[in-house]
Amino acid sequence: MYRLQGKKTYLIAGLMVLVSMLRLITGDMSLAEFVTSDHVNTLLGGVGLGALRAGVSKLSVR
What we know:
Structural class: mainly alpha
């Protein structure tokens, strides 16, 4: 777990984005269906989580 210190949140955020994008890429749903589905919330949540973690790490370095 020491190697993952400070990177676990990025890993979770990346997996959230990957899982939501795989639904669109594999052709399970069209773009219109994707935009109106809950997978967009997962996508935006993953991006937001990564951005939040990046902001917190910048603040804690100073």
